[in-house]
Amino acid sequence: MISSQFISDCTIRILIDRMWIRLSSMVAFSAVMATAFASMGCKGNPPGTVPSATEPHRLGGQNGLVAVSSQYTVGDAKARLQQAIAANDKLSTIAEIDHASNAAGVGLQLDPTEVILFGNPALGTPLMQVNQKTGIDLPQKMLFAADSRGTTVVMYNDPEYLRQRHGLDEAASQLATMTRAMSGLAHKSSGHAVAPGDSGISPQQGLIVTKSAHSVDETYRRLEAAIEGAGPLRVLARLDHRANAQTVGLTLRPTRLLVFGNPALGTRLMQKKQSIGLDLPQKFLVYEDGAGDVFIVHNDPHYLAARHGITDGGDILATIANALNKLAAAASSTGSAL
């Protein structure tokens, strides 16, 4: 029986095929953003400090995260990103998550924390054409969070992280464009320069892959049924990367993303480190490779915890990992990961 505690439950608006799907999810963070970032080894800043508001800054090392302090409030920084997206006909907003609002909905206190998911299929699809597993990390997203002192931080995944994690050397042109775009959007949202850099990620790091005995559609259906049958777990979003590729005249083998969650365990992780909200709620990617084989991909929760500097999540992480493995086994009928 899968644990009744799991991941997160956030209110998300998903735009799929031009229709908004309203989702609920809750995520909570308790440590202030300054402490969260400092503990992840911010280069050029002493422990316990936040990034300088007057110079470029990134989170380096093994995490693949880019963060810059903002001169704006969370609401204003988010609005500036929305304006930039609206002004670019190649970009579209895919989802909006207001973690603080959802936390309040279940009686929890949370400083302003919001995430926008957005993308350009013309850039994302070529990455998945090289390696379909990249779909677990797409679309791109940007987090806006303020600590108890009102300091706002803008944060996102470095495209270099995608290159290293998914072996995307063949998509160097698209990644370079994505890097410039993300840096520019973060600059607009923060008012400060951004300096992305090497993320130090090993190929396929943190990915758990399970081979399925079924088609993509059947595997996806079985995943949905397993999640919906697991007590408070709920499917929050369904994304079809292949269908999105077709909207820009590109081809992609069947590749589908399933987002799901439950507030209990995800909240407890975010109470330890705010930044892990960028990687929650959990996701399953289902895809068919060139040989016609079908696979399920998900993130190892122990890897996500390490990425965000969580060192004391033992029992929580074990429960999450066990639940994810059981869901993948139920959908694949294989019962084991590769």
Ordered list of secondary-structure elements with their pairings:
Blueprint: E1 12-16, E2 19-23, H1 33-39, E3 65-70, H2 74-86, E4 92-98, H3 99-105, E5 113-119, H4 121-130, E6 140-146, E7 152-157, H5 159-166, H6 172-190, E8 207-212, H7 216-228, E9 234-240, H8 241-246, E10 255-261, H9 263-272, E11 282-288, E12 294-299, H10 301-307, H11 314-332
Antiparallel strand pairs: 1-2, 1-4, 3-7, 4-5, 5-6, 6-7, 8-12, 9-10, 10-11, 11-12
Helix pairs in contact: 2-6, 4-6, 5-6, 7-11
Q: Please report the distance between the alpha carbons of the first and last residues.
A: 23 Å
Radius of gyration in whole Å, from Cα? 19 Å
By CATH, the superfamily of the largest domain comes out as TT1751-like domain
Average of the residue pLDDT scores: 80
CATH topology of the largest domain: TATA-Binding Protein
- Write down the secondary-structure element order: EEHEHEHEHEEHHEHEHEHEEHH
Low-confidence stretches: 1-62
The number of domains: 2
The helicity comes to: 25-40%
Q: What's the helix count?
A: 11
Q: Beta-sheet strand percentage? A: 15-25%
What is the class of the largest domain in the CATH system? Answer: Alpha Beta
**Strands, total number:** 12
